[in-house]
């Protein structure tokens, strides 16, 4: 997490790849300063803006954080490599994604009472949609250096999957902003605010809930939002202190010996699951607390 600051700037870097490669877009993590409560989305280019590759999840394709281009923009200034910038009022520590020619940002008010999704046209820098998804009467407590919209969305086939921890998980139609399904019944006391981003695989959406009170992994059917399986962590933390049980990690889908594994770090242990059934494959107890890494 970042320090106690009040403005986040999301930066998108476009690149000019070699002729035999697709042009790529990299969207690095948030950069913050301490002036206002606005988010600023910057789109940068090396000379000219080039077509954007899909960057449809946290850390891009496969969660690898790799734009795979021969040339990437590495510096930006007011006069260099910035095509447009767009102030977006709100407080959100999530990263933007790129899907179907638009950047998508989860957003929230600082108090967490309004959760929204912002759609930005990559060519013009204009807001193409600002969709209020839920109003929360009594949001959970969130520390100042986190936000109520810290989970990066993911997308596929014209659908955006957003996650705001236990407050809301939803599938949104990209063209219209219509909510196709939503879940607000997956309990977790985040105690400091949410941070784990969702992951798509086949017909499943994977979510990690490592909270102060409960710790589990859930798989939802992407067509209906219904729970396909749920696996309690079952970790011996060696303490009743919920602060030692919280974590903010994002899962990763890895292939081992030709078979998929869903690897989910947590406080104290990392556990691998069969993504189809939720059956545990292995676990490693390594100690530590508040894990926020991705394998």
Description:
By secondary structure, the protein is mainly β. The chain has 2 domains: 190 residues, Lipocalin (Beta Barrel); 98 residues, Thrombin, subunit H, CATH 2.40.10. It contains no helices and 21 strands. The strands form 5 sheets. Strands 1, 2, 3, 4 and 5 form a 5-stranded mixed β-sheet that branches. A 4-stranded antiparallel β-sheet has the order 6-7-8-9, with no helix packed on it. The two termini are 17 Å apart.
Helix-strand blueprint:
Blueprint: E1 7-14, E2 25-26, E3 31-33, E4 38-44, E5 82-89, E6 97-99, E7 102-108, E8 114-121, E9 127-135, E10 154-156, E11 159-163, E12 169-173, E13 179-183, E14 199-201, E15 204-210, E16 215-221, E17 227-232, E18 252-256, E19 259-265, E20 268-273, E21 280-287
Parallel strand pairs: 1-4
Antiparallel strand pairs: 1-2, 1-3, 4-5, 6-7, 7-8, 8-9, 10-11, 11-12, 12-13, 14-15, 15-16, 16-17, 18-19, 19-20, 20-21
Which key features would you list for this structure?
Lipocalin; Thrombin, subunit H; 295 residues; mainly beta; 2 domains
CATH structural class of the largest domain: Mainly Beta
Q: Would you tell me the structural class of the helices and strands? A: mainly beta
Largest sheet: 5 strands, mixed
Q: Could you say which overall geometry the principal axes of the C-alpha atoms support?
A: globular
Element pattern in H and E: EEEEEEEEEEEEEEEEEEEEE
Averaged pLDDT: 85
Q: Helix count, per DSSP?
A: 0
Low confidence ranges = 1-37, 45-51
Q: How would you briefly describe this protein structure?
A:
By secondary structure, the protein is mainly beta. Helix content is 0%, strand content 41%. The protein has strands at residues 7-14, 25-26, 31-33, 38-44, 82-89, 97-99, 102-108, 114-121, 127-135, 154-156, 159-163, 169-173, 179-183, 199-201, 204-210, 215-221, 227-232, 252-256, 259-265, 268-273, 280-287.
